[in-house]
Amino acid sequence: MNDRTVSVIVVSRARPEALRRCLLAIAQLQYRSFEVVVVACPQGVAVANASAALSEIKCIAFDEANISAARNLGLKHAAGDIVAFVDDDAVPEPQWLHHLVAPAARADVAAMGGFVRARNGISFQYKARTLDAQGTPQEVEIDPFQATVLVPPKGRAIKTEGTNMAFRRDVLVDIGGFDPAFRFFLDETDVNMRLAQAGHATALVPLAEVHHGFAASATRRQDRVPRDLFEIGASWAVFQRKYIPKADRPAHWRLQHTAERRRLLQHMVAGRLEPRDVRRLMNRLDAGYEDGQHRSFGAAQLPRHAMQPFRPVEFRRREAKFTSVRGIRATAAIEAAVARVAAGSIETVLVLSRTALFHSVQFTLDGVWVQRGGLFGRANRDEPLFRFTTFRRRSQRERARIAAVRGLEQR
């Protein structure tokens, strides 16, 4: 097993239930030497301190709407060789750290990023992406089962997603950590750009999976409709001042402005926004852009050594188990799985109905991975809409699909 120490940093604000689920999943991580650093508002601090799933948590109180400042605070207290970040509304797969940190065995790898599954637990929200000189993400094809180490050409960077990324602590400190001028949005993009400018390599790791729930926040609703665009406008202004030549900024802003308006109009057509909401949000975008023109930016002052010693979570080796049942037996199977989780296992329950319904995956508040769907329906969204099969064959296929990320023995 990888012997590098890891600090898992979670920033949380006004989402206590999401944080509770996240910490429950972190407790199932199969990695021998890691600590947990939670930077949170009073609600989140209370959840972390009351967590029965984790034996040790470094808990730091912070209640400002600035994710970069919160991450820097976590970095100050993190004592691991590697610092890994996951959002409070996300849950990592049990083998997340095992896969994510492995490329650090190469001395030239400074950053690592994994894949992110969307709310349904099947579709990918983010896979492998690079960044052009204007901060625009572009998808790139890599091996879906192996880590790929990339060194970007001049003017480009390798994208890591804020809810699933890791860095060598000393490198992140050397480049100044996260820029507090990016209070929300483009915060990790800015780090990616500075890593590229310094000539560091990034590993993209498909099997290091996190499920992202997109919980509601001050900036977006549960259905991903924006509540406010002020910080998006401000972040683009700061990004332009740092990376885009002055003559190119007006054209760049027109592109971003048009993209945001198009996004809002799509929500309006779908009935999720009213015309007056579109006007208000666009006005907030413009106001934020103006604010960003005058916002101070630059690297933060970060200590070379952590403010607290490494405080590892008590490692518990857990056996991963897989159960498949027909719908009528789902309740009993899940209840039995909950009991086994409490006894120390990692439990997956596949519930199959005799339909062609699409599959979805949920990590429950009792710590069970539950997958539901039709016997003949698709899991991965590139599969056929209908595929005739038997219960046994379908169970075997779904087990094999998740074996590497869930820690199931290969058959």
Write a structural description.
With 411 residues, this protein is an alpha/beta fold. The chain folds into three domains: 6-212, Spore Coat Polysaccharide Biosynthesis Protein SpsA, Chain A, CATH 3.90.550; 230-292, no CATH class; 320-406, no CATH class. It is built from eleven helices and 17 strands. It has helices spanning 16-26, 42-49, 67-77, 96-101, 169-174, 187-197, 230-243, 249-269, 275-292, 330-343, 391-406; strands at 6-12, 34-40, 58-61, 82-85, 90-92, 109-117, 124-126, 129-131, 137-139, 148-150, 157-158, 165-168, 201-212, 320-326, 346-353, 360-363, 368-374. The strands form three sheets. Strands 1, 2, 3, 4, 5, 6, 7, 10, 12 and 13 form a ten-stranded mixed sheet that branches. Strands 14-15-17-16 form a four-stranded mixed sheet. Strands 9-8-11 form a three-stranded antiparallel sheet. Strand 1 (6-12), helix 1 and strand 2 form a beta-alpha-beta unit. Helix 8 packs antiparallel against helix 9. The radius of gyration is 22 Å and the shape is globular. The mean pLDDT is 96.
How would you summarize the topology of this molecule?
Blueprint: E1 6-12, H1 16-26, E2 34-40, H2 42-49, E3 58-61, H3 67-77, E4 82-85, E5 90-92, H4 96-101, E6 109-117, E7 124-126, E8 129-131, E9 137-139, E10 148-150, E11 157-158, E12 165-168, H5 169-174, H6 187-197, E13 201-212, H7 230-243, H8 249-269, H9 275-292, E14 320-326, H10 330-343, E15 346-353, E16 360-363, E17 368-374, H11 391-406
Parallel strand pairs: 1-2, 1-4, 2-3, 6-13, 14-15, 15-17
Antiparallel strand pairs: 4-12, 5-13, 6-7, 6-12, 8-9, 8-11, 10-13, 16-17
